[in-house]
Amino acid sequence: MSKRIVVTGIGATSPLGGTAEESWQALLGGASGNRTLEQDWVEKWQVPITMAAQIKVPSVDVLSRQETKRLDPNSQFALTAAREAWADAGAPGVEPERLGVDWATGIGGLWTLLDAWDTLRERGPRRVLPMTVPMLMANGAAAAISMDIGARAFSRTDVSACASSTESIANAYDHLQAGNADVIIAGGSEACIHPLPIASFAAMQALSKRLDDPATASRPYDVSRDGFVLGEGAAAVVLETYEHAVARGAKMYAELLGGSVTSDAYHITAPDPQGSAAARAMKAAVENAGYALSDVAHINAHATSTPVGDIAEYNALRRVFGEAVEGIPVSATKASTGHLLGGAGAIEAIFVIKALQERIAPPTINLSEQDPEIHLDVVTSPRALPAGDVVAISNSFGFGGHNAVAAFKTV
C-alpha cells in the first residue's frame, strides 16, 4: 500500500534571500536577484557576461570560519539550506539509521577544483591543500549534511545537470515508499558563478546579453528573451511519512505525490523540440499518484528564458494537457532567481510548496510581450489558487536530456 509522504521543513539560501521565507516573500514582491558582478576576476579575465544572480546572504554571515574554509561554496550553500530545513521541521527525533540524505548538484565543487589547479600551476604541487579532493567531490555536500545531522540510513548524490534536485526529491519519495528511511533531507545546491562556466555558457550563446539592465535580463516566454541568467544557491526539504509526522506532531506544508524521471536521448544540450519524454514525466508524476491531469491547478515551469527551451517545454505541456493547459496558471520563477542549475529544482519545489500552502501562485517578472507561439496563462502578479484538493507540478530539465518532475498537493 502506498504511503503518504509530507513536507515538514523547508530551507534555502538564494539570490532573493538568506532563508526560504525571505526568498518566497521577495518572489511574491516581484524582486530580481540578478545583479552586475563586481569581483576583480570580471575585469581580469574579461568575461563576456558581467551579471549573475548571486546569493543574497554570504556564507560567511551564517557559517563558522572553519566551515567556510573546509567546505567548497557548493557545500556551504547546501549546509546552510539543510540546517534551516532541519530546524524548521523541529529537528525530528529519528534514529540515525532511519534518517537519510538525498542531495543533488549539477557540477559540484567547481571553485575548489579550479582554485587548486591555479595553485598547482603557479605555486607547485606542495601548495595544493590536502582537503582539495574532499572539497571538490560532487558528493561533498551530501556528506556534509549527513555528518551535520547524523544521517546513517544513506547519503546519496544525484547529478543530472539542471534536473538534479528535482530528481533528488523524486528519489527521496521512492526511498520513503520502500521503507529505507522514515525521514529524508532532499534538495540541491550549485556554486558556479565563476569565469570558466560563464565563458563556456556565453560561448554556447546560452546566457542573456542584457548587461545594461540585469534585473530584466531573464524573460521567460517573452518575445525578446535571449538566454538564461546564471544563478547560485541551495534549497532543502525535509520529507517524511505522514504517519511519522503525525506521531511527532509535526506541521505539514504539503504532500509530495511523487516524481518521475525520463530521458530524451536526443542531444547533449538541446531539448527534444517535441517534448515527448518531458511530457511522459509530467503525466506519470501526476497519474502514478492516482490523480487526474485535470486536478493540476498550478505549474512551476522550468522556463529558463532561452528561445529554444521555452518553446520545447510548451510543446511538452501541450502534449500532456492539450488545450486545457491554457487555463492552468504557470509561474516561471527563474525570471527572479536566475538559473541555479543543480539547485533550481529544489528552490522551485519550495515555491510550489509555499504556493499550495498559501493558495497563491507567484509572479513571473519581466514578461512585456508574450511569445505568440506560447499559449500559456503566465502569472504576472500574485494570483489566488482555488480551494479544495489542489495539485501542482514542478518541472526540471537538464543537459543530457534529463527530465524530472515532482508533483505536490495541499495537505
Structure overview:
By secondary structure, this protein is an alpha/beta fold. About 35% of the residues lie in helices and about 20% in strands. It is built from 14 helices and 15 strands. The chain has helices at about 20-30, 40-45, 65-70, 75-90, 110-125, 130-135, 140-150, 165-180, 195-205, 240-245, 275-285, 305-320, 335, 345-360; strands at about 5-15, 35, 50, 100-105, 155-160, 185-190, 235-240, 255-265, 295-300, 330, 360, 375-380, 385, 390-400, 400-410. The two termini are about 20 Å apart.
Q: What's the topology here?
A:
Elements: E1 5-13, H1 20-28, E2 35-36, H2 40-44, E3 51-52, H3 65-70, H4 73-88, E4 99-105, H5 110-123, H6 132-136, H7 140-149, E5 154-158, H8 164-178, E6 183-190, H9 195-203, E7 233-241, H10 242-247, E8 254-263, H11 276-287, E9 296-300, H12 307-321, E10 329-331, H13 334-337, H14 344-358, E11 360-361, E12 377-378, E13 383-384, E14 391-398, E15 402-409
Parallel strand pairs: 4-5, 4-6, 9-10, 9-14, 10-12
Antiparallel strand pairs: 1-7, 1-8, 2-3, 6-7, 8-15, 11-13, 14-15
Helix pairs in contact: 4-7, 8-14, 11-12
